[in-house]
Structures are given as structure tokens and as C-alpha cells.
Amino acid sequence: MSNSNDSNTQEIIKKTAREVFFEKGLDGARMQDIADKAGINKALLHYYFRSKEKLFEIILDEEKQNFMRYLEDIITSQDYTFFEKIEKIVEKQIDNMINAPQLPHFIMNEIIKRPEMMNQMIEKSGFKRVFEVFVKQTSAEVKKGTIRNIKGEQLMMNIMCMDTYPFIAKPYFMNLMGIETDTEYLKVMQKRKKEVVEFVITAIKL
Fold this sequence. Notes:
This protein is mainly alpha-helical.
């Protein structure tokens, strides 16, 4: 196979594996499921990725890198005000989950089933370093008198939970709101970006 064909095949496999893992988790997914959905035979799948666990680690690592890339770019940027950073974080997180609605369920399930593995991933990701930068920025804004006295840890927790929970509890909210289709619900989530930003900033701004 040419390098180009190899690369294309690997990307197809990873895209398919991501969908299967997000839906079924590591325990529920089978290599045969991934091969069938990708339209290849199982032997070819094993040629590129030796095991389900190895493929799972690669998918997790790519998701981690994607998350860290945008979070670090926003938080360490000198071009945004503190309030603009909050806006960018909210918008990017919700956009990511609109594009991959099963991602929050997948992450939550894996945290519950494999806490040590997920903790190791966080340790290696650099998230703590970026998180600490945000905490310091929050403290600086408190000292300047632009926001009320709030810990950066609590503020980030509020932002992430407000962004994520509606996707985790989607069936519950769809029932409460009388929404019948996923497409309609995702439109509500698009509008939610503005609601969350305004709610968070109004809650902390002096």
C-alpha cells in the first residue's frame, strides 16, 4: 500500500472507532464492530492497530490533544480580555459537543469505569498547568475589582458543568421541553452558548 492509502485507511479506521467507542465505550466495543462499520476486514484492522486497547488509547489521546489545544490557546492568549476568554471557552466547548454529542457520555462512563487511566491522561495532558493559569487570572481579576470574589477553580467548574450537563441529560431535557428530534435539541444548544456566557459573566461581574 502507498503511504497515502495507508494514511487514508488509518483515518477512516480512527473516525469509525471514535464513533463506536463513543457509543459503546471500551468494554462494549469490538474490533469486528469497527471493521464492519469501516467497511474493511478484521485482519486489515489488526494490521494497522494491534488491539482494541491500543486503538482506544490513540482515540483518547487525540481527544485530549484537541481539548488542550483550544483551551490553552484561549487561556494563554494575550489578545482576549478575561470575559472574552470565558466566552470563547463556552462557545468552543459547546461547539465540540454539538459536533460529537456522545462525547460527554463517553468521558463520564470511562471516568467511572477507569478512574486511574483517566487520571493518568489528565496528568500527561498538561491540563493542570493550564487550569492553574486560569486560576491565577481569576485571582488577578478579583484583585483588580472587575469580578466578585470567586475562586478560579469554582468558576471553571461552573463553566464546564453548565456546558456539559445538558448533553449528558439530553433525553431528560428533551422530554421536559417537548423536543422530539436531536436536530431540534442541538439548535437549542446553539442558542445556549449565548445564555451560558451571559449568565456566567453577569454572576461574577462587578
